[in-house]
């Protein structure tokens, strides 16, 4: 379709509806619900047959309509589907859907101290990231649980959810910014009557991750049902899977962990034809040992054991680069990270409504939720051959001290250690608390002889996030404490006089010896790194929708709306991390340590800084659904168009549009659908206003000279919205006469995102400035006097993303009585084939990277979920298969064993680039022992299939929980009752 014609068509539609402006609301609620107990099938419409075959509602639009009249594919999970999954958290059920890729949860980022997303249950569609998936509650926005604006699904009320709609296509024109990958909409039961509860408990086959869930909800009508009140409360506790400590050991007997690593060859080996990388197991790092290892000079290879006794370190075999195979294996190479966080969620929700008349109501909702996590990112705090130990160190054994004095002219040895003598592992404690209130009205009214629906609401939401890190060290204090000497009286003290004046206490890191607890208190003060973030969201929003007039092929429908929204945040770090003087923060009585950096960044990790920011947006949209064909010969067809205009106080103007069409062909049960849309994502608060952190770096100028600069990491308030073009085409087969009960949908999608916000390093910015990119030059100053040069390490709109693939969804339900057997059988299958997931940095000299099939990422080539269910009314049995296809470490790697080409930064070489896929089988059963009372049982990962090992060149965990199951076989049982 020509661009000008497309724009003209949309803007004519907007102009025709300008007098009918109002706001987005619960358009989904006006759609018919699926038949109770039926199998939610592929997104294809069908009138419920007498045997209870599912009625499918396709949403993805603000206009309430069935099936073929909407072009955007939507997957619906009913309350029955969610219950049969028997998960403690709906989030865990949703992430199994093939279209959901790259979500964060309690098994991801367990290695992270400073990311800020630990324990955050946030959804991601298409692998495009959580920031490009819009998650709604009853069609309404929810205050973000992170400065990126993403929501925490664990803070949602879940027992009252009657269905979840997953819109797997661009939906910005209908729903607004962030819906590039799609929309996940949680729909609650607003007229629940009675009392129900759910009690569930479980654990793994390794007797860990013990969990329990209690949920209860009550609802009742008053004053002849004009007033309706409902409340719910939920509590979930999952104990997590703790760190196994040091060495090659899996948590609680998990045997699949074998110290994986990517071994990097030398430049000489690569020149001789060897690959750059080789995946190895039983890896031993050569730069440190459990209790200390000398890594240079004549004493290289001397390790320290019990009581500080020196011994020859066992490096193992095949030592290349930083790793050997086998050997000591008592340290930590990726081991020690929690596989799952200790996790607790508490949610209280209420909704009170008042019917003004039979067609109109006003309501108020309130939600309080708190989610707490605890985990250990790593045991100890590895120092890789970067410690200077002097020959007169008071803790050196006499024999080592003597050899040091004669063998090291500088009087200094290099030592690496895992710091296994620390009395406790680092633990991270994120706590997120939400307070959300909504006042609204919805109903129906007559206009020009037609029925119209409306919804309007005002929302205020707050989220407070506190991250506290315990048992972590201050780098400078650690360095002062390990540099110990004897004073004139023979006492062991810190060498540095200023450090002693500031309370320095020495510690011994050379051997398995009890740590001096006074020294531990000095290097790891118990206040620890702390980040306190307050986020708030205010929304005024509403919409109307209805039939404008009766066209010759059916009613022409319209939805229109407007919204005002404000988002703001403020974040404060502790003074050791943020760089605020302790005395200025806590008062003159607080001790001032002059040995620490006044600019902050003193912790081993978790250096949180201060910042604040805000923006507001005004937006309006209109959408039309126009039937234009209704023929016994040619079938039925309709056109769906939408346009949204947005004005951000920061990013300026943005617009989104959608054109879609559906055709119910004259072929029995066959429908076609297609949609093309422009979608947007505005820069979030973090990208715009990230707090500044400063480090010292060296960059090369255009003349090849090295220049010392301050790298000032900071947000970029000049960022513009990301812009996406989303195209999809689908074929839907819905219960043809020759296959009653069968539904099938196959949808092809192609999403291109440009102006993607991506961060740049200091050298990249300098190079781009010299290359003529003036918008980058404003962030670079390297020609001033020494000490004044800096580079603002910011994000810019340079990058692009391109993902495309195919979604398949099918469902079949049959009454087995027709075959002389009891009960009914239901099959439901969903699969996504990712053809491409290209990420292009957009910088000179760089090439796009392919994410499809990259098993170290989040987008396997194939991801599938298939469930078979037999149900005879009282007893139900289910079997579920979860499958991901095999893939590679990286699509940019060149696999070779000998005669390899010289590797480049864009195309490294690797010995074996293959990583296996995985199939997980779950079984479940329910038994109805009384009316609306059910016992249930579930086993996930029946075969206890362990994850593939995904080694990295650094000390990451060595597995990828975004793709593989890292928990293992899990048993759950519970009871649901309703009165």
From TrEMBL:
The places in or outside the cell where this protein is found are: Cell outer membrane
User: What span is annotated as the signal peptide, if there is one?
Assistant: 1-27
Similarity comment: family membership: Belongs to the TonB-dependent receptor family.
Q: Which Pfam families match?
A: Plug, TonB_dep_Rec_b-barrel
Q: Which organism is it from?
A: Massilia pinisoli
The primary location reported for this protein is membrane
Specify residue ranges for compositional bias: Low complexity.
Answer: 36-48
User: TonB-dependent receptor-like beta-barrel domain: from which residue to which, for each copy?
Assistant: 446-942
UniProt-recorded name of the protein: TonB-dependent receptor
What keywords sit in the KW lines? Cell outer membrane, Membrane, Receptor, Signal, TonB box, Transmembrane, Transmembrane beta strand, Transport
According to the record, the residues making up region (Disordered) are 25-48
Where does the TonB-dependent receptor plug domain lie? Answer: 69-183
- Write out the residue ranges of the motif TonB box: 55-61
Instruction: State the annotated membrane topology for this chain.
Output: Multi-pass membrane protein
